Amino acid sequence: MVCLVTLGIIIIGGTVYGVFFNTAPARPAGNEQPPDLRGSGPEQTFTGIGRLRIPTADPQPGTVILFVSFMYYPGDRAFSEELTLRLGYLRTIIRDYIGSFTAAELQRLDEEHIRTELLRRFNGLLRLGRIETLFFSDFMII
Question: Of 2, 32, 46, 82, whose CB neighbour count within 10 A is largest?
Answer without folding.
Answer: 46
